[in-house]
Amino acid sequence: MPEAATIQDLEKRAATIRRHVIAVAAEHMCHAGGALSAVDVMAALYFGVMNVDPKDPARPDRDYFILSKGHGSLALFATLSERGFFPVSMLASFEQAGSILAGHPTLKVPGVELATGSLGHGLPVATGVALACKVSGDANRVFVMMGDGELQEGSVWEAALAAPRFALDNLTAIIDRNGFQAFGEVERIMPLEPLADKWHSFGWRVIEIDGNDMAQVVEALGQPPQSERPTLVLARTVKGKGVPCLEGSPRAHFTRLTPEEAAEALQGLTS
Amino acid sequence: MSLYDNVKSLPALLLELGEANPDLFVVSQDMGSVGPFVERFPQRAVDVGITEQNLIGVAAGIALRGKLAFVYGMAPFVTMRGFEQIRTDLAYNSRNVKILAVFCGLAAGAWGATHHAIEDIALMRAIPGMTVIVPGDGHEAEQAIRAAAALPGPVYVRLGAFLPVHDEDYEFRTGRAVTLRAGSDAAIIATGTMVHPALQAHDRLKARGIEARLIDMHTIKPLDLAAVESAADETGRIVTVEEHSIIGGLGAAVAEVIAEKGAGRLARVGIRDTFCTEVASYPELCAIHGLTPDDIEAAVVSLLDGTR
Chain A partners of B25 at a C-beta cutoff of 8 Å? Predict the structure, then answer.
């Protein structure tokens, strides 16, 4: 684990990562909204919580992060590059011909544990990683982030049954509850509430937070494993967080920013 | 021909492999019958219940942690409900997971078409990076499972209720077809449970003066192209035989090779693009759907007569 980062340090990291996302979104259409909502959790994980080594991404004692909502890849790539897994300058090639940075995470990208994109895959795989670690007596922690729309996939609930069954207290699932899926509000298209109750009833330890409040994020993710139950962090977030014209807007899912919109957002982040 | 013939030796084999390799996990789905492995290595015997997507995902995660995962499950459900997980979590992510599938083809008999797997080879074969092995008897199956454990990446092993085909000294090599009988009038290329009836058909043809080459094509992917091409060149007439739909399986794989090569004629013995809805035992269903030595013999004769 890195030296204890202060909440202010992590907030600055999050602002830097958001700037990277905004820079790409100002160039071309991308899944900006669901990347921006997830930035604070990723900044907290990679700069404050997880044990990772950019020089040796596969070292056996590392903690694992799986981005199950693969369309949030831009936030993950920005975080990984900021953490030193690859040069920040590569971010400009996102989704461009010849780049290793596709629209969804792939194993070509240093630091990516699982190629994702199709929804509902991350939690079962994270369950397997956590199970293998637990059986071997290894202390690695395993984190997986899902979108809230993603929870409509049945495979999520198969794994939601399994992780408590195997007492995987080394597993933390995070829901980026930004409220929107591709074509509208999750609660209108296929409602999930009462969401915390669902996970609680499946046997998870549930922690509800404001997922864009760094102090709350660090408090929730930094808690050590306990009680032989997996942890579910229900992170209520704002889609498009940090970009005023996108915040809470259905447009945020897949969009391009005008130069004015990008400038306004960047100004807000630096001030 | 009991449904469970093949399963009897599997628990002992998994126990042996698990004793030799402390990183070997067996992930199953309410199958119950991996027997002694469960008792000996309860922590490495993972039963995820009736959750096929989760089954494959969990196995992929175990492999992501550097372990070797054997998935043990029912072919129709594992391959179809877990298809995208096999494609994406195992193949696209290059994970070291071996799927041991039982209840293949029509093995489930009178349980009905929900429990038949007649598309699994087609599905698995279409996935980049998959190895697809369809052993012809228990001896070959045991060696195929050992070989799968040593191969990198995902492997699908299709198990069935086998009758003996190979000698004790037989050696399995992945991707290398076995010519069981020489011959140049025609070539029978069979896979899995159909190798045994093909052997019977060969003997009947021989009694009629027809020298048919008999090839056990135990690996569907990567296909032994040289064996198919030489069969096409040297006999000109090929009959494929499989307990699977004629669409997408062995017959299709061979058709692709000889069509591109532009040599040889082909007849496919298999399930003719239909659900097998008759209530009947496994052998009876095989007979109804044209999977007997008689059917294979007739296919060869018909091809030689030029009536096809």
Answer: 132, 135
| pTM of the complete model | 0.96
Residues of B with catalytic function: 52
Q: What is the pLDDT of residues A124-137, one digit of tens each?
A: 999 999 999 999 99
Query: Domains of chain B by range and CATH?
Result: 5-158 (3.40.50.970), 178-305 (3.40.50.920)
Residue B219 at interface with chain A, using a CB cutoff of 8 Å: no
Which one of 2.40.50.140, 2.60.40.1930, 3.10.180.10, 3.40.50.970 gives the CATH number of domain A7-270? 3.40.50.970
- Give tens-digit pLDDT for B166-208: 988 999 999 999 999 999 999 999 999 999 999 999 999 999 9
In angstroms, the Cα distances linking B252 to B178, B189, B263, B267, B268 are 19, 12, 15, 10, 8
- Between CA A69 and CA B162 the distance in angstroms is 44
What ipTM was reported for this prediction? 0.96
| Domain range list for chain A | 7-270
Q: How far apart are CA B286 and CA A252, in angstroms?
A: 56
Residues B53, B85: contact at Cβ < 8 Å? yes
Closest B-chain CA to A133: B65
CA distance B94 to chain A (A): 9
For residue B197, whether the previous peptide bond is cis, meaning omega lies within 30 degrees of 0, is no
**CA dist B105 → A251, B79, B263 (Å):** 49, 12, 30
Write the residue in B59, B84, B92 that is nearest to A128 by C-beta: B59
